[in-house]
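Need residues for this backbone.
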């Protein structure tokens, strides 16, 4: 009776607010991702443009949760973390609420969970359900018989031929011998969230296909089998999989966000093992992994052996042996040199972790060890003095977390084989229903070495960095939200293109206004400053200067009616505004989304104009794309860009996508450089995709 009374009271008090949530979900479209997610993906691309964007595991996971929502009446803490939406405090509050009040009656009761606000519930609704508990230990034979199967085919191409395709192969040694099409083929079998297996095959533009260096057809093949919740076996991975430990100091191969408007997303949250079913060719393991759990204990072990790309060298002055100077991460095998680097290195990896959950206290111990066929020896540059090197190396760590009322502590203390130390410690505070705060301190020595890691740091890899991050989110009313953070850091040793120890800072504030379910507006300001070599006079020593970068953005989204949504963004960037390398950049675009409730056709389009003083004032803008894919082109110089993206469900089983995009540079007659140079002022991109489900 007490529970029923509480629910009825909440329904009366919040019916209007929650109606906004449920209505918005009914009209939700896959082409309209969360604003915070867009910004986080843009930040990742900006910090490391060399990364492949072929890892669509996160997108696949969220679509799978839409099809098989997480049942809140049976989901454990690990499954709730897999959603990557809830903070650790929100997870603990829900577990405690369910333990006291019992199973949820309906979705409206979520408003009674402490710390769960309307915006959090709105983000969750497409991926959760409330009902009777399912049998999560379904017979293994049923899992293999009663699942869903799909085949996805994607073809992409830049229509203008670049220099690499036009060079006469009879006289040149450096050219693209393959066709300009990029191909992806993926077969996938899924039984709810309990079992999946599949095969991926991919070929990049310029790579040969069933001839020359690629007589096996596709350049990259991947296969996996992944099982969850089979007795004491929590996860079983065969083939390709990813490994995620602690807070990313020892190993983290899945998607992980860093600084952004979601200031509570500073903690790494994921299962230790995850299936890998993407086309990115670098950041995964190939072998066997298993996680077993009993009561409060859980343990994971894995082993992997695979070939990786590397720059191979032979020098009798270095150990009188062959070695590699660097590991290649592009995944391209087009030119002769790229083909020669393919699979040169052999990598044996094994590791594991053991963890225990004592109420709200979690403690884990992690370890990983690598053995390479050829030693890794970097160029003899000062900034490489403490870089990863040798044939054998590894990492060990202890991670921990503890929730006390409205406080959540977490961290990881790690060591590498060369006695390098690394430390990350964070704190999340739910000050009140409308105020959240976060703090994170990291201290990573210049000696610390790691591979396939992704901790919360300014640099891409955790190395040579000390810093303190603090953030706050304030919701003064149901219509307003203000997010802000400050990050102060320093690099005690040299870095690439930075010939001295330096410091840096990053400040961010964003105000979001959402008065109703039709309109959302946000405005943000960001300022960052860090040192870099600047030597236009070509002096003997490279002077290090600080070049501040300021950025202002305004974006709005307006739902015109049930079918159409309009979005627009205006952005300005000032680079080194009062310095000798001063540049300014400007971007404006408008999007139109069409998504009827009962129609097989949906579409979206964009028209953008950009103008920058150079590459330093470049801008990034997330683009809607075909299912399981996203684009974030880098925009600089002066030009226009437009695209149209169309989805049509031909039948209940067969869906088709088409994206056409073109960038026009009115003041140029050559685009790009090297083998990617295009004569003319246009770059046109076409992408076709078909998905057949059976």
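Answer:
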């Amino acid at each position: 009776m007490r529970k029923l009374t509480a629910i009825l009271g909440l329904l009366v008090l919040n019916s209007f607010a929650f109606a906004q949530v449920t209505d918005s979900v009914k009209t939700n479209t896959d082409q309209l991702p969360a604003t915070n997610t867009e910004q986080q993906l843009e930040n990742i691309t900006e910090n490391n443009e060399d990364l492949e964007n072929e890892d669509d595991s996160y997108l696949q996971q969220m679509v799978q949760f839409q099809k098989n929502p997480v049942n809140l009446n049976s989901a454990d803490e690990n499954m709730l973390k897999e959603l990557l939406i809830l903070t650790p405090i929100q997870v603990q509050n829900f577990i405690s609420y369910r333990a006291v009040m019992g199973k949820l009656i309906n979705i409206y009761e979520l408003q009674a969970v402490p710390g769960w606000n309307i915006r959090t519930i709105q983000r969750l609704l497409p991926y959760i359900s409330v009902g009777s508990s399912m049998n999560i230990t379904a017979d293994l034979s049923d899992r293999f018989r009663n699942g869903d199967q799909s085949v996805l085919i994607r073809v992409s191409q830049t229509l203008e031929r670049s220099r690499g395709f036009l060079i006469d192969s009879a006289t040149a040694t450096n050219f693209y011998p393959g066709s300009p099409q990029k191909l992806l083929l993926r077969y996938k079998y899924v039984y709810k969230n309990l079992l999946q297996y599949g095969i991926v095959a991919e070929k990049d533009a310029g790579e040969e296909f069933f001839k020359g260096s690629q007589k096996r057809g596709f350049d990259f093949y991947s296969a996996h089998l992944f099982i969850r919740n089979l007795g004491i076996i929590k996860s079983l991975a065969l083939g390709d999989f990813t490994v995620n430990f602690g807070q990313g100091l020892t190993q983290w191969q899945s998607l992980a966000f860093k600084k952004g408007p979601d200031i509570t997303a500073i903690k790494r949250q994921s299962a230790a093992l995850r299936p890998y079913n993407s086309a990115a060719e670098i950041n995964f393991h190939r072998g066997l992994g298993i996680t077993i759990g009993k009561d409060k204990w859980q343990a994971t072990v894995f082993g992997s052996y695979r070939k990786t790309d590397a720059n191979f060298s032979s020098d009798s002055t270095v150990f009188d042996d062959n070695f590699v100077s660097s590991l290649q991460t592009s995944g391209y095998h087009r030119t002769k040199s790229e083909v020669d680097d393919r699979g040169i290195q052999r990598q044996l990896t094994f590791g594991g972790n053991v963890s225990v959950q004592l109420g709200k206290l979690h403690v884990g111990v992690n370890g990983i060890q690598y053995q390479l066929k050829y030693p890794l020896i970097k160029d003899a540059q000062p900034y490489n003095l403490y870089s990863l090197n040798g044939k054998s190396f590894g990492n060990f760590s202890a991670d921990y977390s503890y929730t006390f009322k409205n406080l959540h502590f977490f961290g990881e203390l790690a060591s590498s084989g060369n006695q390098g130390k690394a430390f990350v410690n964070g704190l999340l505070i739910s000050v009140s229903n409308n105020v959240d705060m976060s703090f994170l301190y990291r201290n990573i020595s210049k000696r610390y070495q790691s591979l396939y890691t992704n901790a919360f740091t300014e640099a891409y890899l955790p190395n040579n960095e000390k810093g303190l991050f603090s953030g706050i989110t304030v919701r003064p009313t149901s219509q307003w939200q203000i997010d802000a953070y400050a990050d102060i850091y320093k690099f005690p040793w040299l870095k690439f293109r930075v010939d001295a120890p330096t410091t840096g800072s990053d400040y961010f504030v964003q105000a979001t206004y959402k008065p109703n379910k039709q309109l959302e507006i946000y405005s943000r300001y960001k300022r960052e400053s860090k040192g870099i070599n600047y030597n236009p006079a070509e002096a003997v020593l490279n002077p290090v200067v600080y070049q501040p970068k300021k950025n202002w953005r305004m974006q709005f989204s307006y739902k015109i009616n049930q079918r159409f949504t309009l979005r627009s963004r205006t952005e300005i960037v000032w680079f080194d505004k009062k310095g000798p390398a001063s540049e300014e950049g400007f971007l404006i675009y408008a999007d139109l989304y069409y998504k009827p409730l009962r129609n097989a056709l949906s579409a979206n389009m964009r028209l953008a104009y950009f103008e920058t003083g150079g590459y330093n004032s470049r801008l990034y803008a997330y683009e809607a794309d075909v299912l399981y894919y996203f684009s974030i082109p880098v925009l600089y110089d002066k030009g226009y860009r437009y695209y149209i993206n169309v989805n049509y469900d031909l039948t209940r089983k067969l869906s088709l996508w088409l994206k056409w995009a073109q960038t026009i540079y009115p003041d140029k007659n050559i685009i790009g450089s090297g083998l990617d140079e295009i004569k003319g002022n246009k770059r046109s991109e076409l992408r076709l995709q078909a998905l057949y489900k059976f």
